[in-house]
Design brief:
- This protein is mostly helical.
- It contains 21 helices and no strands.
- α2 packs parallel to α7, α7 runs antiparallel to α14 and α17 runs antiparallel to α21.
- The longest helix has 41 residues.
Length: 518
């Protein structure tokens, strides 16, 4: 190994990594920080429940578009200038959201937050792969991986606490001091990079328009599909067509552009392609389960947002505790074995929650959440490491954009799957329970009579009516619990079925990460 490769990162490089980590954490936090505050926000800005969902959807749509396009902006403006612009923009748009008196202004602010915040996620991984020498990259990867795990976990908890103890406005205003600190770190830690304004003159406009149209429409389709009954809706059908047109334009741009906006050719590398697919799967499990657990706890044991947040937070503890070990583990454990182990832990944790009952509460999730945290540690962090080393350094921006877009897109697919199956499987289970236990069967009559007597309070007829209502509620609750069990089981199966993808990955040298990304 040459002396150049043995050279350690200087203080400026670590300040740059710290800036990238803080920016990525802030951006991932804002994906979910408003979820616990949505009912309050909707009431204050005069939005209906359906309209209020766009407060989250607007951010997700804008973010995934910018994640994919960030490599092109970075090459054109230079990394330092690009990050300074988007950090300042994020602070401005956060203020816009915090002061929003109407739904329209809130959505404008959230779109702006999504565009500017989306740029901070892939650039954090780019900083790690370009500013740190190969032997120190695992430290930066661990810090970045922590943001991917903790951001979605801490978001609802922080948002719920701020809403309960201060005001929902502070869920946005909290970004202001962080953005100011981030600007200082960027000015100190990053050098002024080379700009390439010529990229604007011969830009891959087909690719830019295609990615914006394809990813934007696809994300909106997945977010709104179940609410609009999928392809029964002309809106969903139109979004699907526009998304398809967008991806066709991207393909044409890859063929005719001198320098495509996003080099999809790196997906021909089997190792990176497998990392991309597993990022889809792990992202789906991450965001899908982060949605399932609070929903179950709110609907069955009647937890509030803050109580649910503490249960969700448990999965972040193993990552925080084991993060210092990652630079050592990445040198002694084959990356393929580590990712397979992580996905197996993840799948096993899902199976632990595949037999829920109506009597279960947060305690039922403790062991599964800790095991899930181990799964996230091994799968996400080692996939991050593989993403930075699977391609040449000149493709680092494109690899980071694709890897992070895959994780977010996997989350959108998972949430669409969850919302669809929650509706359909609950109806199916209610029908089956109703067929097995009818009010006219001897067992059903005896049960109803028992309920009616307990609720009569001197009014037998009223007691029977209340008993029927309670019986119906219990059937619905049982059907809902069975559906949640089905969904956890399904996520477990998906994780285990995806494990063979690790066989397509290239192993990292035992002496340290590959130098390709240095």
């Amino acid at each position: 190994m040459s002396k150049a490769k043995e050279k350690k990162a200087d203080a400026a490089a670590w300040i740059a990594v710290a800036a990238g980590t803080i920016g990525a954490l802030m951006a991932t936090l804002d994906i979910s920080i408003v979820n616990a505050s949505l009912p309050t926000i909707q009431g204050e800005i005069g939005a209906s429940g359906t309209e209020g969902t766009w407060i989250s959807t607007a951010y997700l749509v804008a973010e995934i578009i910018m994640i994919a396009l960030s490599g092109w902006f970075e090459r054109m403006l230079g990394l330092r200038r690009f990050l300074l612009i988007v950090t300042a923009g994020f602070a401005i748009f956060s203020t816009t959201c915090g002061l929003a008196p109407s739904l329209g202004q809130m959505i404008i602010g959230r779109v702006g937050q999504g565009f500017t915040g989306g740029a901070m996620i892939p650039t954090a991984l780019t900083i790690v792969s370009t500013r740190l020498p190969p032997r120190q990259q695992p430290i930066g990867v661990a810090l970045f991986g922590m943001t991917a795990v903790l951001g979605p976990v801490l978001g609802p908890l922080i948002g719920g606490w701020l809403t309960e103890n201060a005001s929902w406005h502070y869920a946005f205003f909290i970004n202001l001091p962080i953005s100011i600190a981030l600007l200082i770190l960027l000015l100190v830690g990053l050098r002024g990079g080379r700009r390439r304004p010529d990229l604007l003159a011969h830009a891959d406009w087909l690719g830019i328009i295609g990615l914006s149209l394809g990813l934007g429409c696809l994300t909106t389709l997945l977010e709104e599909g179940q609410r609009d009954r999928w392809f029964e809706s002309s809106l969903i059908l139109t979004l699907a067509i526009l998304s398809g047109i967008g991806f066709v334009l991207v393909g044409i741009g890859q063929l005719i552009s001198r320098e495509p906006v996003l080099r999809l050719s790196i997906l021909r590398d089997r190792s990176f392609a497998s990392v991309f697919l597993m990022s889809l799967v792990v992202g789906g499990a991450l965001y899908g389960i982060l949605y399932l657990i609070p929903q179950f706890l709110a609907q069955v044991p009647d937890y509030n947002a803050e109580q649910s947040g503490y249960v969700v937070l448990l999965s972040g503890l193993p990552t925080m505790m084991m993060m210092p070990l990652f630079p050592l583990l990445v040198r002694i454990i084959d990356v393929r074995l580590a990712v397979a182990l992580g996905m197996a832990f993840y799948g096993a944790s899902c199976f632990l929650n595949a037999h829920l009952t109506a009597a279960d509460n947060g305690g039922q999730f403790v062991t599964a959440q800790l095991l899930r945290g181990l799964g996230q540690y091994f799968s996400l962090l080692f996939l991050n490491q593989a993403a930075t080393t699977s391609v040449e350094a000149r493709f680092a921006e494109d690899a980071s954009g694709l890897f992070n877009a895959a994780r977010n897109l996997g989350g959108s697919f998972a949430l669409a799957l969850v919302s669809t199956l929650l509706d359909r499987r609950t109806t199916l289970h209610m029908d089956r329970i109703g067929e097995a236990t009818t009010a006219n069967s001897p067992t059903g009559q005896a049960f109803l009579q028992q309920l009616g007597q307990g609720l009569a309070h001197g009014d037998p007829a009223g007691g029977m009516t209340r008993g029927l209502a309670l019986f119906s509620q219990q059937v619905q609750t049982q059907a809902l619990v069975m559906t949640y069990s089905d969904l956890f089981w399904l996520f477990g199966v998906i994780m285990f079925v995806s494990i063979p993808l690790v066989l397509l990955m290239k192993p990292l040298p035992r002496t340290g990460p590959s130098t390709a990304a240095a």
